[in-house]
Design goal:
single chain; 766 residues; mainly beta; Maltoporin, Chain A; 24-stranded antiparallel sheet; five-stranded mixed sheet; 45 strands; 56% strand
């Protein structure tokens, strides 16, 4: 950003903040969401842990959206995929079993075994290191925090674009309680869930929660039993909490998560009118040939021959059935000891995870060209913290150490004849990456003028050691990995980085503040496994870094009846890691695509975010959010053309994918009090998004036009709040929208958001 542009920005921000303060309508970067005021009394106070301690959300100078349990249920938010309904600057895509969240122009594209996510995902303070882990179901969840912007000081290296922190409900010592709910909806969706809290004494309690969900897929597969985007989920969590003495708290958790079915693969969707000519290796789009990916126009509408989503066959008789199997076990221990002046905390986590998925990429009627992958991961982490006990002290501080170790075994097969994939003629690429990370961090805040002016500074030193072994994998007749054997090649990397954060807050009144923040973040570099099979491909990619500037305001108004959220930011990226699909020779002849990570020299995202929530009268909740964003590559030249082609490409000036220039969300809900007959609550939620590209190539083929989605629901709750029933319709107008698109060797691969869904939910509390 040039000097003149920066001065204009500062003047604009100053004017906005001063005007907001004088008018009394500037507020926090976060607010309670729908359902916060069922009983009146203004917008609820929400406690968050964005600074690794419990604080009032309005006292944290970070852009956060916090969604409580009531809002999750009211909006049918069963996992991260629908969080964007209530969160500015956030979008969600999915490819296969991999989640691809995006925050302020930053999204995770490197979903391979050597890739780190760019958006952090923590459940009960335990880090999840694979993108597919971000699909973990929400059950008996107390709160979801979406922290926008780099969180590299207190959360770590892979919170490059932001962080999502999920907090499950902890066992309670006081009340025996429980709940249960049953949902039936479109595509034979059946979901049963519940929890039970049992105090064993005034210092020991257990809590168990679980769900079982099945649903048919909404994209046609080889037969009705194998439609795509189905669900077969089992999830169980058990927690034990012990408080031996005052100030000494221990919580132990175990979770088991299983996913089965065809999954939601982005591979293999043949769009009408898009085929690759096998002779020329070029796309034929409505009779017009285009060089694969790179000279497709940005304008026009070549998809006039497209087939409706619910009529588009993915497979054909005789083809291989798509499969997905995911298993995850997590053990965690959160221990805190409050000694008065200081508090010690230990967070221990262990994750045992595996995922298998395959895809049929041939777009044809013959048996063959089956692609697949199986990953197995063991990871454990240990975090130690010491902090002052009272967050309200004039001098507040936290120091910590974080250790993480991850061992992965993975096998890939690509374009292998389905009847010969276990024969010597079908080679398997495999890898054994290992990561060890050590980090020391600290942050301190000081009130220069008590309750008026506060400064905060923090830093983190991270050292990542990565080792990659070339290996060969073998499978059984069902394509499942039986062994991975090292073959001798080994690559070692060390990435060392200091990240930091500086912040100034000024309180105009106890309920009105403005702040400015400068922070940095980074994500480790790594190795492209495709190099083992094709040395012509790039072997390595560098770490990516970001420097972020943000100005914000946090205020409560009219006895907390209104909150208005404002944030203005600019992110400067260096060496942004970008995924490309390269056309390479296949093991059995012909060609296939290989994912390769490259570094874009420089990029940026800048924008404005606003959130408003109002409770003008008892029972009425109104909310609105707006995102204005510009995310572009500044310098991304010399992109290698795929194999079999010459020259380089230049993406400089292209839009960063999943970054609409405008995005609006809003909701309105009203509690109709029926006295002893209970309460009826109708609610409408609207999301409107400007158009955006799904790939760096920025063509009309991967472009998602602007769209609007409306959700409607109406619910009844008994006067004693023990029983409830709700009817809902999501995506009322049945909008068909892409959440992921990639170019492959045989066409355009696409993944779609859910069509119109309706259902009924019945619940009980005791």
């Amino acid at each position: 950003m040039g000097g003149f542009e920066m001065r204009k920005t500062l003047l604009l921000v100053t004017a906005l903040m001063c005007n907001s303060a004088l008018a009394g309508v500037a507020s926090a970067q976060s607010s309670a969401e729908p359902g916060a005021n069922a009983q009146g009394g203004g917008v609820d106070v929400i406690i968050v842990t964005a600074q690794r301690r419990s604080e009032d959300l309005q006292d944290v100078p970070i852009a956060i959206t916090a969604i409580d349990a009531d809002a999750l249920a009211a909006n049918d938010i069963r996992d991260l995929s629908r969080v964007e309904l209530l969160t500015p600057g956030f979008s969600f895509g999915k490819s296969g079993s991999d989640a691809r969240p995006a925050i302020r122009g930053v999204r995770t594209e490197n979903v391979g075994v050597s890739g780190d996510p760019s958006i952090g995902f923590f459940v009960d303070n335990v880090y999840r290191s694979r993108t597919s882990m971000a699909n973990e179901p929400f059950i008996d969840v107390e709160r979801v925090e979406v922290q926008r912007g780099p969180q590299g000081t207190l959360y770590g290296r892979n919170t490059f674009g932001g962080n999502v922190a999920v907090s499950s409900a902890a066992p309670d010592f006081t009340d025996f309680s429980g709940s249960g709910a049953f949902t039936y909806g479109s595509y034979d969706r059946l979901r049963g869930e519940g929890h039970l809290n049992v105090p064993l004494s005034d210092r020991i309690a257990v809590r168990v929660a679980g769900l079982r969900e099945t649903m048919d897929g909404y994209v046609e597969g080889i037969d009705e039993a194998h439609d795509i985007f189905d669900r077969d989920t089992t999830y169980v969590r058990a927690a034990l909490r012990i408080e031996p003495t005052d100030g000494f708290d221990m919580t132990f958790r175990y979770t088991r998560w299983e996913e089965r079915g065809t999954g939601g693969a982005a591979f293999g969707y043949r769009v009408g009118g898009i085929f690759v000519n096998p002779t020329t290796g070029r796309f034929d789009i409505n009779g017009e040939p285009y060089l694969l990916r790179y000279d497709i126009p940005r304008t026009g509408n070549p998809l006039v021959e497209g087939i409706p989503i619910d009529e588009r066959p993915l497979f054909y008789p005789g083809d291989t059935i798509l499969e997905q199997e995911l298993d995850q076990d997590v053990f965690s221990a959160n221990i805190s000891l409050d000694l008065g002046p200081v508090t010690f905390r230990s967070i221990t986590g262990y994750v045992d995870y595996s995922v298998f998925r395959n895809a049929d990429n041939d777009f044809g009627t013959r048996v063959g060209n089956v692609d697949g992958q199986e990953d197995r991961l063991d990871a454990w982490s240990q975090e130690l913290q010491v902090s002052n006990s009272n967050a309200g002290d004039r001098f507040s501080w936290i120091l910590g150490y974080f250790y993480y170790q991850e061992d992965v075994s993975a096998s890939f097969f690509s374009s292998c004849p389905s009847l010969a994939r276990n024969t010597p003629g079908c080679a398997f690429a495999a890898g054994l990456p290992k990561t060890t990370s050590n980090a020391f961090f600290g942050q301190a805040s000081f009130w220069i003028i008590p309750d008026v002016l506060r400064i905060t500074g923090g830093t983190r030193h991270t050292e990542d050691e990565k080792t990659v072994y070339r290996a060969v994998g073998t499978t059984d007749a069902s394509q499942r990995l039986t062994s991975v054997t090292r073959t001798g090649q080994q690559f070692d990397f060390t990435f060392d980085k200091i990240t930091w954060r500086g912040n100034v807050e000024y309180y105009l009144t106890p309920d009105n503040s403005v702040y400015g923040t400068i922070s940095t973040g980074f994500r480790s570099g790594g190795f492209n496994f495709g190099f083992f099979a094709n040395p012509a491909l790039p072997a390595f990619f560098a770490p990516e870094t970001v420097t972020a500037y943000e100005f914000g305001s946090k205020n409560r108004l009219l006895d907390n009846a209104v909150q208005v959220n404002l944030s203005l930011y600019r992110n400067e990226f260096r060496d942004l890691q970008v995924q490309n699909q390269f056309l390479v020779p296949a093991p059995g002849g012909g060609t296939t695509t290989t994912s390769v990570i490259l570094n874009a020299a420089s990029a940026y995202s800048q924008g404005f975010e606003a959130e408003v929530q109002a409770v003008p009268v008892q029972g009425l909740d109104i909310g609105f959010s707006a995102t204005l964003m510009k995310a572009r590559y500044k310098d991304y030249a010399n992109v290698p053309a795929p194999a079999n082609y010459t020259g380089t490409l230049d993406y400089s000036g292209n839009h960063i994918p999943y970054s609409p220039d405008w995005k609006l969300t809003g909701y309105i809900a009203y509690d109709i009090d029926l006295g002893n007959a209970g309460t009826i609550r109708p609610q409408a939620t609207l999301l409107w998004s400007d158009g955006y590209f799904n790939t760096d190539t920025n063509t009309v083929l991967d472009f998602q036009p602007s769209y609007a989605k409306l959700d409607l629901r109406i619910g009844w709750t008994s006067a004693d709040e023990r029983f409830s029933i709700e009817g809902f319709v999501n995506n009322v107008t049945d909008e068909v929208t892409l959440n992921r698109a990639t170019f492959g060797s045989r066409g355009l691969n696409q993944s779609y958001d859910a069509p119109r869904m309706f259902g009924v939910r019945v619940g009980a509390n005791f």
